[in-house]
Amino acid sequence: MYDAIVVGAGPAGSVCARQLGRDGQRVLLLDRGVFPRDKACGDALTGKKTLRALQAMGLCEAFLELHPAASVELLVVGPSGRRCRLVSTPNQEALRENYVCPRRIFDQWLLAQCRPWVEVREGIAVTEVGIDETGVTVSGRELSSGRALTFHSRLVVGADGASSLVARAAGLRPARARAGAAALRGYFSGCDVSASQLEFYMLRDILPGYLWVFPLGEGVANIGIGLAPQRSGCPPESLAKFLWNALGTHPALAPRFRHARLEGRLEGWVLPQWNCRARLSRDRALLIGDAAGLVDPLTGEGIGNAIVSGQLAAAEGAEALRAGDLSASRLRRYDRQVHRRLGPELQLAALGVRLLQAPWLVDGLIALADSQPWMGRALSALIGAPEGKRELLTVAGWRRLWRAVALET
Ligand SMILES: Cc1cc2nc3c(=O)[nH]c(=O)nc-3n(C[C@H](O)[C@H](O)[C@H](O)COP(=O)(O)OP(=O)(O)OC[C@H]3O[C@@H](n4cnc5c(N)ncnc54)[C@H](O)[C@@H]3O)c2cc1C
Protein backbone atom coordinates (compact mmCIF):
# COMPACT_ATOMS: atom_id res chain seq x y z
CA MET A 1 0.00 0.00 0.00
CA TYR A 2 1.38 3.42 -1.00
CA ASP A 3 0.85 6.47 1.18
CA ALA A 4 -0.11 8.50 -1.89
CA ILE A 5 -0.74 7.89 -5.57
CA VAL A 6 -0.40 10.97 -7.79
CA VAL A 7 -2.15 10.63 -11.17
CA GLY A 8 -0.50 12.83 -13.84
CA ALA A 9 3.17 13.81 -14.10
CA GLY A 10 2.75 17.33 -15.50
CA PRO A 11 4.17 20.23 -13.46
CA ALA A 12 1.49 19.91 -10.74
CA GLY A 13 1.91 16.15 -10.26
CA SER A 14 5.73 16.07 -10.38
CA VAL A 15 6.06 18.86 -7.84
CA CYS A 16 3.48 17.36 -5.48
CA ALA A 17 4.94 13.84 -5.71
CA ARG A 18 8.48 15.13 -5.15
CA GLN A 19 7.53 17.07 -2.04
CA LEU A 20 5.52 14.15 -0.58
CA GLY A 21 8.41 11.77 -1.32
CA ARG A 22 10.96 14.07 0.30
CA ASP A 23 8.70 14.18 3.33
CA GLY A 24 9.24 10.42 3.70
CA GLN A 25 5.90 9.28 2.25
CA ARG A 26 5.80 6.27 -0.07
CA VAL A 27 4.60 7.75 -3.35
CA LEU A 28 3.64 6.32 -6.75
CA LEU A 29 3.44 8.77 -9.69
CA LEU A 30 1.51 7.50 -12.74
CA ASP A 31 1.24 9.01 -16.22
CA ARG A 32 -0.17 7.63 -19.43
CA GLY A 33 2.57 9.41 -21.39
CA VAL A 34 6.15 8.23 -21.80
CA PHE A 35 8.53 11.13 -21.20
CA PRO A 36 9.69 13.23 -22.92
CA ARG A 37 6.10 13.79 -24.03
CA ASP A 38 4.55 16.89 -25.55
CA LYS A 39 1.77 19.00 -24.03
CA ALA A 40 -0.10 21.72 -25.95
CA CYS A 41 1.08 24.94 -24.32
CA GLY A 42 2.54 28.37 -25.10
CA ASP A 43 5.64 27.18 -23.17
CA ALA A 44 5.93 30.54 -21.37
CA LEU A 45 7.18 30.39 -17.80
CA THR A 46 6.94 33.60 -15.82
CA GLY A 47 9.71 34.51 -13.44
CA LYS A 48 7.36 35.98 -10.89
CA LYS A 49 5.24 32.85 -10.53
CA THR A 50 6.93 29.73 -11.95
CA LEU A 51 10.55 30.52 -11.14
CA ARG A 52 9.61 31.79 -7.71
CA ALA A 53 7.77 28.50 -7.05
CA LEU A 54 10.82 26.55 -8.29
CA GLN A 55 13.02 28.67 -6.05
CA ALA A 56 10.92 27.68 -3.03
CA MET A 57 11.89 24.07 -3.86
CA GLY A 58 15.58 24.92 -4.38
CA LEU A 59 15.27 24.22 -8.12
CA CYS A 60 15.58 27.71 -9.63
CA GLU A 61 19.33 27.58 -10.27
CA ALA A 62 19.11 24.12 -11.81
CA PHE A 63 16.38 25.41 -14.15
CA LEU A 64 18.49 28.41 -15.18
CA GLU A 65 21.35 26.03 -16.01
CA LEU A 66 18.98 24.03 -18.19
CA HIS A 67 17.46 27.11 -19.79
CA PRO A 68 19.37 30.36 -19.30
CA ALA A 69 17.81 32.45 -22.12
CA ALA A 70 15.25 34.92 -20.78
CA SER A 71 12.89 37.13 -22.77
CA VAL A 72 13.32 40.63 -21.39
CA GLU A 73 10.85 42.53 -23.54
CA LEU A 74 7.11 42.27 -24.05
CA LEU A 75 5.61 43.74 -27.22
CA VAL A 76 1.87 44.39 -26.95
CA VAL A 77 -0.07 45.34 -30.10
CA GLY A 78 -3.62 46.67 -29.77
CA PRO A 79 -6.68 46.20 -32.01
CA SER A 80 -5.89 49.43 -33.90
CA GLY A 81 -2.24 48.46 -34.42
CA ARG A 82 -1.06 50.78 -31.63
CA ARG A 83 1.84 49.14 -29.82
CA CYS A 84 3.89 49.42 -26.64
CA ARG A 85 7.07 47.76 -25.43
CA LEU A 86 7.45 46.77 -21.81
CA VAL A 87 11.07 46.17 -20.91
CA SER A 88 12.59 44.73 -17.75
CA THR A 89 15.06 47.23 -16.36
CA PRO A 90 18.71 46.13 -16.64
CA ASN A 91 20.00 43.91 -13.85
CA GLN A 92 16.56 42.86 -12.72
CA GLU A 93 16.97 39.51 -11.12
CA ALA A 94 15.99 36.32 -12.96
CA LEU A 95 12.72 36.09 -11.07
CA ARG A 96 11.32 39.03 -13.02
CA GLU A 97 12.11 37.67 -16.46
CA ASN A 98 10.04 35.31 -18.59
CA TYR A 99 11.26 32.11 -20.20
CA VAL A 100 10.03 30.07 -23.14
CA CYS A 101 10.90 26.42 -22.61
CA PRO A 102 9.16 23.66 -24.62
CA ARG A 103 7.04 21.50 -22.32
CA ARG A 104 8.69 18.41 -23.78
CA ILE A 105 11.90 19.60 -22.10
CA PHE A 106 10.50 21.33 -19.00
CA ASP A 107 8.17 18.51 -17.90
CA GLN A 108 10.85 15.86 -18.39
CA TRP A 109 13.33 17.91 -16.37
CA LEU A 110 10.82 18.43 -13.56
CA LEU A 111 9.95 14.73 -13.53
CA ALA A 112 13.66 13.89 -13.26
CA GLN A 113 13.80 16.05 -10.11
CA CYS A 114 11.33 13.77 -8.34
CA ARG A 115 12.68 10.34 -9.39
CA PRO A 116 15.06 9.97 -6.41
CA TRP A 117 12.12 10.14 -3.97
CA VAL A 118 9.21 8.72 -5.92
CA GLU A 119 8.32 5.54 -7.82
CA VAL A 120 7.46 6.77 -11.33
CA ARG A 121 5.54 4.60 -13.79
CA GLU A 122 5.06 5.95 -17.30
CA GLY A 123 2.77 4.61 -20.02
CA ILE A 124 0.03 3.69 -17.51
CA ALA A 125 -3.44 5.06 -18.28
CA VAL A 126 -5.56 5.27 -15.16
CA THR A 127 -9.07 4.05 -15.95
CA GLU A 128 -10.81 3.95 -12.56
CA VAL A 129 -10.38 5.30 -9.06
CA GLY A 130 -12.36 3.89 -6.14
CA ILE A 131 -12.41 5.60 -2.75
CA ASP A 132 -13.88 4.16 0.47
CA GLU A 133 -13.17 4.35 4.18
CA THR A 134 -10.42 1.69 3.95
CA GLY A 135 -8.39 3.43 1.22
CA VAL A 136 -8.02 4.21 -2.47
CA THR A 137 -7.90 1.71 -5.34
CA VAL A 138 -6.46 2.97 -8.63
CA SER A 139 -6.95 0.76 -11.69
CA GLY A 140 -5.14 1.27 -14.94
CA ARG A 141 -3.80 -0.25 -18.12
CA GLU A 142 -0.20 -0.53 -19.25
CA LEU A 143 -0.42 0.97 -22.73
CA SER A 144 2.47 -1.01 -24.23
CA SER A 145 1.05 -4.43 -23.26
CA GLY A 146 -2.63 -3.81 -22.51
CA ARG A 147 -2.06 -5.42 -19.09
CA ALA A 148 -4.53 -4.41 -16.36
CA LEU A 149 -2.95 -3.11 -13.15
CA THR A 150 -4.28 -2.21 -9.70
CA PHE A 151 -2.62 -0.09 -7.01
CA HIS A 152 -3.68 0.80 -3.47
CA SER A 153 -2.97 3.89 -1.39
CA ARG A 154 -4.18 5.95 1.53
CA LEU A 155 -4.46 9.19 -0.48
CA VAL A 156 -4.94 10.00 -4.18
CA VAL A 157 -3.94 13.29 -5.83
CA GLY A 158 -5.60 14.20 -9.14
CA ALA A 159 -3.00 16.00 -11.29
CA ASP A 160 -4.44 14.62 -14.50
CA GLY A 161 -5.25 17.85 -16.28
CA ALA A 162 -8.34 19.51 -17.69
CA SER A 163 -10.46 16.35 -18.16
CA SER A 164 -9.45 14.88 -14.80
CA LEU A 165 -10.68 11.32 -14.34
CA VAL A 166 -9.78 11.53 -10.65
CA ALA A 167 -12.09 14.56 -10.23
CA ARG A 168 -14.99 12.64 -11.79
CA ALA A 169 -14.30 9.45 -9.85
CA ALA A 170 -14.06 11.41 -6.59
CA GLY A 171 -17.40 13.07 -7.26
CA LEU A 172 -15.71 16.48 -7.56
CA ARG A 173 -16.70 18.40 -10.66
CA PRO A 174 -14.08 17.94 -13.41
CA ALA A 175 -12.47 21.27 -14.17
CA ARG A 176 -13.33 20.90 -17.84
CA ALA A 177 -17.05 20.90 -17.07
CA ARG A 178 -16.76 24.50 -15.90
CA ALA A 179 -16.92 27.29 -18.46
CA GLY A 180 -13.39 27.49 -19.76
CA ALA A 181 -11.21 29.52 -22.07
CA ALA A 182 -9.77 27.84 -25.15
CA ALA A 183 -6.34 27.95 -26.77
CA LEU A 184 -4.50 26.44 -29.71
CA ARG A 185 -0.80 26.48 -30.56
CA GLY A 186 1.74 25.26 -33.09
CA TYR A 187 5.52 25.32 -33.58
CA PHE A 188 6.55 27.33 -36.65
CA SER A 189 9.98 27.44 -38.28
CA GLY A 190 11.32 30.11 -40.64
CA CYS A 191 9.93 32.97 -38.50
CA ASP A 192 11.35 36.47 -38.39
CA VAL A 193 11.34 36.92 -34.59
CA SER A 194 13.53 38.51 -31.94
CA ALA A 195 14.88 35.97 -29.45
CA SER A 196 14.42 38.30 -26.48
CA GLN A 197 10.86 39.45 -27.13
CA LEU A 198 7.47 37.94 -26.32
CA GLU A 199 4.77 39.30 -28.66
CA PHE A 200 1.07 39.69 -27.81
CA TYR A 201 -1.54 40.74 -30.39
CA MET A 202 -4.84 41.88 -28.89
CA LEU A 203 -7.06 41.29 -31.93
CA ARG A 204 -10.46 43.00 -32.11
CA ASP A 205 -12.53 39.85 -32.77
CA ILE A 206 -11.16 37.84 -29.86
CA LEU A 207 -10.75 40.39 -27.06
CA PRO A 208 -9.80 39.91 -24.30
CA GLY A 209 -8.09 36.90 -25.86
CA TYR A 210 -4.90 37.34 -27.85
CA LEU A 211 -2.52 35.84 -30.36
CA TRP A 212 0.99 35.15 -29.08
CA VAL A 213 4.39 34.71 -30.69
CA PHE A 214 6.95 33.23 -28.29
CA PRO A 215 10.49 32.72 -29.70
CA LEU A 216 12.39 29.47 -29.20
CA GLY A 217 15.58 30.44 -31.07
CA GLU A 218 16.87 29.80 -34.60
CA GLY A 219 13.74 31.20 -36.25
CA VAL A 220 11.42 28.79 -34.44
CA ALA A 221 8.45 30.18 -32.50
CA ASN A 222 5.54 28.88 -30.49
CA ILE A 223 2.55 30.69 -32.01
CA GLY A 224 -0.95 30.36 -30.66
CA ILE A 225 -4.23 31.98 -29.95
CA GLY A 226 -6.28 32.07 -26.77
CA LEU A 227 -9.95 32.91 -26.28
CA ALA A 228 -11.61 34.10 -23.09
CA PRO A 229 -14.37 31.89 -21.58
CA GLN A 230 -17.31 33.79 -23.08
CA ARG A 231 -15.95 33.23 -26.61
CA SER A 232 -14.67 29.69 -26.21
CA GLY A 233 -17.83 28.13 -27.70
CA CYS A 234 -16.25 28.61 -31.10
CA PRO A 235 -15.01 25.25 -32.47
CA PRO A 236 -11.27 24.45 -32.76
CA GLU A 237 -11.41 24.65 -36.59
CA SER A 238 -12.57 28.29 -36.38
CA LEU A 239 -9.80 29.09 -33.94
CA ALA A 240 -7.24 27.53 -36.30
CA LYS A 241 -8.70 29.47 -39.25
CA PHE A 242 -8.50 32.67 -37.25
CA LEU A 243 -4.83 32.01 -36.44
CA TRP A 244 -3.91 31.35 -40.08
CA ASN A 245 -5.86 34.40 -41.19
CA ALA A 246 -4.10 36.67 -38.69
CA LEU A 247 -0.67 35.34 -39.69
CA GLY A 248 -1.50 35.93 -43.35
CA THR A 249 -3.12 39.37 -43.14
CA HIS A 250 -2.17 41.28 -39.97
CA PRO A 251 0.13 44.12 -41.08
CA ALA A 252 2.60 43.46 -38.25
CA LEU A 253 2.67 39.68 -38.81
CA ALA A 254 2.14 38.90 -42.49
CA PRO A 255 5.48 40.24 -43.83
CA ARG A 256 7.44 38.46 -41.11
CA PHE A 257 5.70 35.08 -41.37
CA ARG A 258 5.54 34.79 -45.14
CA HIS A 259 8.09 31.96 -45.06
CA ALA A 260 6.98 30.40 -41.78
CA ARG A 261 6.14 26.68 -41.83
CA LEU A 262 4.02 24.80 -39.31
CA GLU A 263 6.02 21.90 -37.85
CA GLY A 264 3.58 19.18 -36.80
CA ARG A 265 -0.01 20.12 -35.96
CA LEU A 266 -1.91 22.89 -34.21
CA GLU A 267 -2.89 21.51 -30.81
CA GLY A 268 -4.79 22.52 -27.71
CA TRP A 269 -8.29 23.39 -26.67
CA VAL A 270 -9.98 23.96 -23.30
CA LEU A 271 -8.29 25.85 -20.48
CA PRO A 272 -10.16 24.99 -17.27
CA GLN A 273 -11.33 27.94 -15.22
CA TRP A 274 -11.31 28.79 -11.57
CA ASN A 275 -14.62 28.48 -9.76
CA CYS A 276 -14.40 29.78 -6.22
CA ARG A 277 -17.29 27.55 -5.09
CA ALA A 278 -15.87 24.28 -6.46
CA ARG A 279 -14.51 21.72 -3.99
CA LEU A 280 -10.90 20.69 -4.56
CA SER A 281 -10.85 17.87 -2.00
CA ARG A 282 -12.86 15.15 -0.31
CA ASP A 283 -11.85 12.35 2.04
CA ARG A 284 -8.64 10.73 0.71
CA ALA A 285 -8.52 12.90 -2.46
CA LEU A 286 -7.04 16.24 -3.57
CA LEU A 287 -7.13 17.99 -6.96
CA ILE A 288 -4.27 20.16 -8.21
CA GLY A 289 -3.28 22.17 -11.31
CA ASP A 290 -5.63 22.06 -14.29
CA ALA A 291 -7.65 19.30 -12.60
CA ALA A 292 -8.53 21.95 -10.00
CA GLY A 293 -9.20 24.63 -12.67
CA LEU A 294 -6.40 27.02 -11.75
CA VAL A 295 -5.58 28.64 -15.11
CA ASP A 296 -5.53 32.46 -15.08
CA PRO A 297 -8.54 33.41 -17.26
CA LEU A 298 -6.92 36.64 -18.49
CA THR A 299 -3.42 35.46 -19.43
CA GLY A 300 -4.02 31.72 -19.86
CA GLU A 301 -1.06 31.06 -17.57
CA GLY A 302 -1.46 27.78 -15.68
CA ILE A 303 1.98 26.26 -15.06
CA GLY A 304 2.87 28.50 -12.11
CA ASN A 305 -0.46 27.90 -10.36
CA ALA A 306 -0.16 24.16 -11.07
CA ILE A 307 3.19 24.14 -9.26
CA VAL A 308 1.95 26.26 -6.36
CA SER A 309 -1.11 24.02 -5.88
CA GLY A 310 1.15 20.94 -6.02
CA GLN A 311 3.23 22.42 -3.21
CA LEU A 312 0.16 23.29 -1.11
CA ALA A 313 -1.38 19.84 -1.63
CA ALA A 314 1.87 18.10 -0.67
CA ALA A 315 2.17 20.14 2.53
CA GLU A 316 -1.43 19.50 3.61
CA GLY A 317 -1.39 15.88 2.38
CA ALA A 318 1.82 15.04 4.24
CA GLU A 319 0.46 16.49 7.47
CA ALA A 320 -2.81 14.60 7.11
CA LEU A 321 -0.94 11.34 6.37
CA ARG A 322 1.26 11.81 9.43
CA ALA A 323 -1.77 12.56 11.60
CA GLY A 324 -3.59 9.52 10.17
CA ASP A 325 -6.57 11.75 9.41
CA LEU A 326 -7.58 11.82 5.73
CA SER A 327 -11.13 12.93 6.37
CA ALA A 328 -12.90 15.48 4.17
CA SER A 329 -12.86 18.08 6.93
CA ARG A 330 -9.11 17.72 7.48
CA LEU A 331 -8.27 17.91 3.75
CA ARG A 332 -10.55 20.93 3.38
CA ARG A 333 -7.59 22.90 4.76
CA TYR A 334 -6.04 22.48 1.31
CA ASP A 335 -9.05 24.19 -0.31
CA ARG A 336 -8.66 27.08 2.10
CA GLN A 337 -4.94 27.40 1.31
CA VAL A 338 -5.61 27.51 -2.44
CA HIS A 339 -8.37 30.10 -1.99
CA ARG A 340 -6.13 32.25 0.18
CA ARG A 341 -3.04 31.98 -2.01
CA LEU A 342 -4.49 31.98 -5.54
CA GLY A 343 -8.13 33.07 -5.22
CA PRO A 344 -7.70 36.89 -5.16
CA GLU A 345 -5.45 36.96 -8.22
CA LEU A 346 -7.74 34.63 -10.17
CA GLN A 347 -10.75 36.77 -9.28
CA LEU A 348 -8.97 39.95 -10.36
CA ALA A 349 -8.11 38.22 -13.63
CA ALA A 350 -11.79 37.32 -14.11
CA LEU A 351 -12.64 41.00 -13.61
CA GLY A 352 -9.99 41.91 -16.19
CA VAL A 353 -11.64 39.50 -18.64
CA ARG A 354 -14.91 41.42 -18.27
CA LEU A 355 -13.30 44.86 -18.60
CA LEU A 356 -10.90 44.27 -21.46
CA GLN A 357 -13.51 43.37 -24.06
CA ALA A 358 -13.73 46.94 -25.36
CA PRO A 359 -11.18 47.63 -28.14
CA TRP A 360 -11.06 51.36 -27.27
CA LEU A 361 -10.06 50.56 -23.68
CA VAL A 362 -7.29 48.16 -24.73
CA ASP A 363 -6.00 50.63 -27.34
CA GLY A 364 -6.22 53.45 -24.79
CA LEU A 365 -4.14 51.56 -22.23
CA ILE A 366 -1.54 50.63 -24.85
CA ALA A 367 -1.36 54.24 -26.07
CA LEU A 368 -0.93 55.45 -22.49
CA ALA A 369 1.84 52.91 -21.80
CA ASP A 370 3.54 53.93 -25.05
CA SER A 371 3.35 57.69 -24.57
CA GLN A 372 3.75 57.95 -20.80
CA PRO A 373 6.96 56.33 -19.55
CA TRP A 374 5.57 56.14 -15.98
CA MET A 375 2.62 54.03 -17.20
CA GLY A 376 4.96 51.69 -19.07
CA ARG A 377 7.11 51.35 -15.96
CA ALA A 378 4.05 50.77 -13.76
CA LEU A 379 2.84 47.98 -16.07
CA SER A 380 6.33 46.42 -16.23
CA ALA A 381 6.55 46.54 -12.44
CA LEU A 382 3.09 44.98 -12.09
CA ILE A 383 3.89 42.19 -14.55
CA GLY A 384 7.14 41.39 -12.75
CA ALA A 385 5.78 41.84 -9.22
CA PRO A 386 6.06 38.81 -6.94
CA GLU A 387 2.40 39.07 -6.02
CA GLY A 388 1.29 39.74 -9.61
CA LYS A 389 -2.15 41.30 -9.88
CA ARG A 390 -2.57 40.87 -6.11
CA GLU A 391 -0.32 43.93 -5.73
CA LEU A 392 -3.43 45.97 -6.63
CA LEU A 393 -5.29 44.69 -3.58
CA THR A 394 -3.01 45.97 -0.83
CA VAL A 395 -1.61 49.32 0.29
CA ALA A 396 1.87 47.73 0.46
CA GLY A 397 1.47 46.55 -3.14
CA TRP A 398 0.54 50.06 -4.34
CA ARG A 399 3.49 51.45 -2.39
CA ARG A 400 5.87 48.99 -4.10
CA LEU A 401 4.47 49.91 -7.53
CA TRP A 402 4.80 53.62 -6.77
CA ARG A 403 8.42 53.12 -5.68
CA ALA A 404 9.19 51.21 -8.90
CA VAL A 405 7.78 54.09 -10.95
CA ALA A 406 9.22 56.93 -8.87
CA LEU A 407 12.71 55.45 -8.46
CA GLU A 408 13.23 55.35 -12.20
CA THR A 409 11.78 58.77 -12.96
C1 LIG B 1 -2.69 26.01 -26.11
C2 LIG B 1 -2.34 26.24 -24.67
C3 LIG B 1 -1.36 27.19 -24.35
C4 LIG B 1 -0.99 27.40 -23.01
N1 LIG B 1 0.04 28.27 -22.75
C5 LIG B 1 0.49 28.41 -21.48
C6 LIG B 1 1.66 29.21 -21.22
O1 LIG B 1 2.31 29.73 -22.13
N2 LIG B 1 2.06 29.35 -19.93
C7 LIG B 1 1.39 28.74 -18.90
O2 LIG B 1 1.79 28.92 -17.74
N3 LIG B 1 0.30 27.96 -19.13
C8 LIG B 1 -0.15 27.76 -20.39
N4 LIG B 1 -1.22 26.92 -20.64
C9 LIG B 1 -1.83 26.20 -19.51
C10 LIG B 1 -0.90 25.05 -19.06
O3 LIG B 1 -0.57 24.24 -20.17
C11 LIG B 1 -1.58 24.19 -17.98
O4 LIG B 1 -2.15 25.04 -17.02
C12 LIG B 1 -0.57 23.25 -17.30
O5 LIG B 1 -0.10 22.28 -18.21
C13 LIG B 1 -1.22 22.53 -16.10
O6 LIG B 1 -0.34 21.56 -15.59
P1 LIG B 1 -0.91 20.24 -14.88
O7 LIG B 1 0.26 19.54 -14.32
O8 LIG B 1 -2.05 20.59 -14.00
O9 LIG B 1 -1.58 19.38 -16.06
P2 LIG B 1 -0.95 18.81 -17.40
O10 LIG B 1 0.27 19.54 -17.77
O11 LIG B 1 -2.08 18.76 -18.36
O12 LIG B 1 -0.52 17.34 -17.02
C14 LIG B 1 -1.48 16.33 -16.80
C15 LIG B 1 -0.80 14.98 -16.96
O13 LIG B 1 -1.76 13.97 -16.60
C16 LIG B 1 -1.62 12.89 -17.49
N5 LIG B 1 -2.90 12.19 -17.51
C17 LIG B 1 -4.11 12.69 -17.85
N6 LIG B 1 -5.06 11.74 -17.72
C18 LIG B 1 -4.43 10.62 -17.29
C19 LIG B 1 -4.88 9.31 -16.99
N7 LIG B 1 -6.15 8.95 -17.11
N8 LIG B 1 -3.96 8.40 -16.59
C20 LIG B 1 -2.65 8.74 -16.47
N9 LIG B 1 -2.18 9.97 -16.74
C21 LIG B 1 -3.06 10.90 -17.15
C22 LIG B 1 -1.26 13.53 -18.83
O14 LIG B 1 -0.58 12.62 -19.67
C23 LIG B 1 -0.37 14.69 -18.39
O15 LIG B 1 1.01 14.34 -18.41
C24 LIG B 1 -1.63 26.68 -21.96
C25 LIG B 1 -2.62 25.74 -22.28
C26 LIG B 1 -2.97 25.52 -23.61
C27 LIG B 1 -4.02 24.48 -23.94
How is this structure best described in words?
It is a single chain. The protein is an alpha+beta fold. The protein folds into three domains: 2-69 and 100-178 and 273-353, 3-Layer(bba) Sandwich (FAD/NAD(P)-binding domain), CATH 3.50.50; 181-270, D-Amino Acid Oxidase, Chain A, domain 2, CATH 3.30.9.10; 372-407, no CATH class. Helices cover 36% and strands 26% of the residues. It contains eleven helices and 19 strands. Strands 1, 2, 8, 9, 10, 11, 18 and 19 form an eight-stranded mixed β-sheet that branches. Strand 14 and strand 15 (220-227) form a beta hairpin. Helix 1 (11-22) packs parallel to helix 4 (103-114), helix 2 runs parallel beside helix 7 and helix 10 crosses helix 11. The radius of gyration is 21 Å and the shape is globular. The termini are far apart. 47% of the residues are buried. The model has no long low-confidence stretch (mean pLDDT 88). Bound molecules: flavin-adenine dinucleotide. The site of flavin-adenine dinucleotide has 38 residues, from helix 1, strand 2, strand 9, strand 12 and helix 7.
